[in-house]
Amino acid sequence: MNVGILGLGYWGPNLLRNFLGHKDVKKVYGCDVNPKRLKFIEGRFPEVQLTNDYNKMLENNNLDIVAISTPVATHYPLAKIALENGKNVWIEKPFTANSKEAEELIEIAEKKNLKIFVDHTFIYTGAVQKIKELVDTQTLGEILYYDSVRVNLGLFQHDINVIWDLACHDFSIMDYFINKKIIGVSAHGIANYYQHENLAHIAVYFENNCFAHFHVNWTSPIKIRRTLIGGKEKMLVWDDMLPTEKIKVYDCGVEIKTPEEMHNVLVQYRTGDMYSPKIIETEALSHGVSEFISAINENRKPLTNGLDGLRIVKILEAAEKSIKNKGTLIELL
């Protein structure tokens, strides 16, 4: 296959490296409007054919895949041209700027039998795959809550707020683990420095009394990447900043015992052992590239496809609407 990478800024070189390293990729092309980025890429990846004309790349009949790593507002128009020109499309998160755009891209891809891959990168990490295994085998039991913190003194985005930038990761991970209908979304936050919120707390309400909470912040003095998942049988802590034992499973929980007197509810706490399962540490992006190419060869949807991207965009839209209305609960149909 021949692959074109649109956007060679922060993430583009990682895409170039991983597509170049795949055995089924014959040629990689790169495109960026910034001449300094083209010069940098030329020195680092001399085998890549470069251009500053994105139309030239999108209309290139030699390309099988176009990977879009540009600002969110450009995802839809660039992907639409690529799909209409018969290219399978890889799109960085978030998929699109709104759900209407996402739905249209999915429709075009289905009509042309093309594949859309949305780069929810964390799904392909060893840690997330291990947690998915624990969830699917009912090791934790029924999921009761999901609590996530993703904060750092980070890079302010000029086109989106902290929810679209950081919470997008955690929404995709949550969606991968929790197979329950979302009832509503509420978000609180503030823009301390300019028009886009830099700190936010988001609550996601599921059916069957399940709840998820997210704390995201561009202005924290420390970097935290921690998730707690509470199940009826066991509880799990995933700390992605730890060099080892990133996942810890605790045999503990809460048991409710109700005697004959209905008003007298007894709460009993159960504590037991903790263990840390082994995680296979390999580069997530490499797995993502392999999954996308395999999906094209096998004519199937990739693990993180357009429909997954659409679900996350709908949550993002609801959170955006809520945060602009001081935390009003936004129902999801």
Low-pLDDT windows of residues: none
- Cross-sheet strand order for the largest sheet: 16-13-12-11-7-10-9-8-17
Based on CA inertia axes, which overall geometry fits?
globular
Radius of gyration: 21 Å
User: Could you spell the SSE succession in H and E letters?
Assistant: EHEHEHEHEHEHEHEEEEEEEEEHHE
Number of helices: 9
- Strand count: 17
Summing up helix and strand content along with how strands pair, one would put the structural category as: alpha/beta
Strand content: 25-35%
The number of distinct structural domains comes to: 2
CATH class of the largest domain: Alpha Beta
Tell me the name of the CATH homologous superfamily of the largest domain: Dihydrodipicolinate Reductase, domain 2
Question: Largest sheet at a glance?
Answer: 9 strands, mixed
| pLDDT averaged residue by residue | 94
Helix content: 25-40%
Q: Based on the structure given, which CATH architecture of the largest domain is correct?
A: 2-Layer Sandwich
Terminus-to-terminus distance: 40 Å
What is the CATH topology classification name of the largest domain?
Answer: Dihydrodipicolinate Reductase, domain 2
Task: Summarize it.
This protein has 333 residues and is α/β, with parallel strands linked by helices. The chain is built from nine helices and 17 strands.
